[in-house]
Amino acid sequence: xxxxxxxxxGTRPVLELRGVSKRYxxxxxxxxxxxxxxxxxxxxxxxxxxxxxxxxxxxxxxVTRPDTGEIVVQGEPVGTLTPDVASxxxxxxxxxxxxxxxxxxxxxxxxxxxxGGGRGRDLRAVLDRVGADLDLQDxxxxxxxxxxxxxxxxxAIALEPAVLILxxxxxxxxxxxxxxxxxQVRAAVDRxxxxxxxxxxxxxxxxxxxxxxxxxxxxxxxxxxxxDLTDEQMLRMIIGxxxxxxxxxxxxxxxxxxxVLSVEGLSGNGFRDVALRAHxxxxxxxxxxxxxxxxxxxxxxxxxxxxTGGTVQLDGxxxxxxxxVARTAYxxxxxxxxxxxxNLSVRENAAVASLRSLARHGFVDGRRERQVVGTESGKxxxxxxxxxxxIMSLSGGNQQKVVMTRALLSKPRLLLSDEPTxxxxxxxxxxxxxxxxxxxxxxxxxxxVSSDAKELEGLCDRVVVMSRGHVVxxxxxxxxxxxxxxxxxxxxxxRTASTAGATSARSAAGAAPGRGSGRWAHxxxxxxxxxxxxxxxxxxxxAYVYSQNSRYLATFNISSVLILLTALAFISLGQAIVxxxxxxxxxxxxxxxxxxxxxxxxxxxxxxxxxxxxxFGIMLVVAIASxxxxxxxxxxxxxxxxxxxxxxxxxxxGVSLLLRPFQGGxxxxxxxxxxTTTVGPVPVAFLAVVLVAVGLEVALRRTAWGRSLxxxxxxxxxxxxxAVKVNRTHVxxxxxxxxxxxCGALLLMAQIGVGDPTQGVTYTLSSITAVVLGGASLLxxxxxxxxxxxxxxxxxxxxxxxxxLNLTQTYQYVFQGVLILIAAAIYTRARSTRRxxx
Length: 838
Description:
Elements: E1 15-24, E2 27-37, E3 42-47, H1 53-60, E4 68-73, E5 76-78, H2 83-88, E6 91-94, H3 106-113, H4 123-128, H5 145-158, E7 163-167, H6 175-190, E8 194-198, H7 202-208, E9 211-216, E10 219-225, H8 231-239, E11 259-268, E12 271-279, E13 283-287, H9 294-301, E14 307-314, E15 317-319, H10 322-327, E16 328-331, H11 335-339, H12 346-351, H13 355-358, E17 359-360, E18 363-364, H14 366-379, H15 396-409, E19 414-418, H16 426-441, E20 446-449, H17 453-459, E21 462-467, E22 470-476, H18 482-498, H19 505-509, H20 519-525, H21 529-548, H22 555-580, H23 588-602, H24 609-635, H25 641-659, E23 664-666, H26 669-675, E24 678-679, E25 682-683, H27 684-702, H28 704-714, H29 716-721, H30 726-752, E26 754-755, H31 762-773, H32 785-804, H33 810-837
């Protein structure tokens, strides 16, 4: 076993938390906690799930504001610590659930985390430093859980912080990755970095840490040098009692046990020709380096991914597809993505898979539901203020207990668990292991994927080792030891890798994209593929219309279409800004109409230029005020984007009708002519909107504003942890949309030439359509302004083409509806496919 790097303590702690307390409703998360972290030392922070470790580190990084207490950084008290302030003072954290932005690429995630956007840094070297075999152009949503953790570690290490906080950093990592991490931790300590290391694995504490502080129920229960404590003493400090054994007793050998689960020749994405058997009472483990097909096989065994061959038999009956889904309970490795439903309570999360058995005459028996959930969760010692508490208020380990409670309540015929104790404390692990053994004893096969060989040794009766998607070894009975499992994993991987013509691990295992992914594959997963498709459709459709009517490309028609397009394009670009954040603005159409109505009172023939300029100023102020109001309602008044912008939609339209109940106030011909000036057949305004779209696109990819915009849409929680000013970004997005609408209103004013309160409303739906056609996600984080511009072009092209094809106006709406459906279907399918692969 390695020993920690020799401590290089300073005379002054680099981080000190004094008397910190924090309460959430009835739950006292922290109570008068003191923590002193010195430079050049690894300080382990231990405790059961829900003990307050993550809350304490939230205080240390500015994510959580304490009720009482003092924070001292490098000897200086900090009044209010925010993530931004913490980052500038040299505090970095690797979160248990990575603070990554799924809709951005690996490179963009690194730039979002590094000072100055990573300008001048070799991003490839940043990844290589921690052994991260990732492609910089891979979208993070396509990465595996382990790869996301490695990226999170790379971001933190690259900052070379004064304080490095590691929250369960090794939970999803393989052995080699853990070794790389520990090497980086030791190097950081040698540079004088203070490291706070949160873990549930005492062996890691023994290997890497100098001192340890233990929390229990939000209070410090002990602090000592690691070398002065035995493992038993640490355990007693953590759980407050003696733990005689982590693992329950295994069943003894018996030749009479029947085969309950039989898998023969099962093949699918990432694995091939896998055979596996489980006898009554057995727990079967799947071992192997992360990404070698174990997780993919487990999903297929639960009917969650398709298979290309082989059979699965339960109790002698063959099952496949949906019949497997109905008979299995699957506990995923990624709790946040697949395990919990964040908007539901603890009770609802636990009971959702067993509602049918809890229902009487089609209605759920609430009393019985609470009773069975309470009983089952009690077996796992679930820590929650109430079963009605939100699931996201629980610690990661307690969330895992809820996932297992749901699995057990569903009364499965096959229990499948991928990394069942990831992020779970020692005491809870023992409870989970005991329940798994009890389930197996009842004749329900239990199959477990784990990267912890010690866990497989203590829990499993049989272990199947996989490499490159194939079974390379099977260990049973006394053969199931940590040494034998590790030897089989390493030996099998080495033999496969050295075989001539062997398929690469990534290819065989169906792992997420990594270094070496092709440019074409990146492009297809990127934000510009929809724009390319749109461009092809525009050209093809234009060629078809021209073949039917040669006047389609007449100079007058081109100029007219581009003038009409420019107004829609400006408003659509504004809509894209808001949608990029995950919001939506239904009020842009009526806002454009109101601005034209305002202009109709001032921008008239024979009016002085000063009055015209004043009118433009008033229009701009009204637009900005509208955007500020929308953003304020959404971010500070608790309105949803739809509710806020719909409210403003009604108000703006009402004001327009009050000002102009009927059409009136003719717009100055001179002003209209100036706004519609052309260069040849191309209006200058259209050239302007193209330049604006290109400028916005460059800003989206290259500036802090653009990264913030995509970050809050991709993951608001992660963006906040990365010190992005989330509220300000949202509000400014609505203001930006309103300013773009002001530009569009100027062109709309020139087109209709009169104050008409009804002319703007159609732009709301059209602008949303253009953004969706351009490939943007209505969930936020993805899209491009170039795609939005092309989406607007296609919409206007279709509206114009119906005239040249002698079609009625009805077809304009039909075509728009079809386009929306096609765009939504393609996007939804593409994104769900990427999620499945990831």
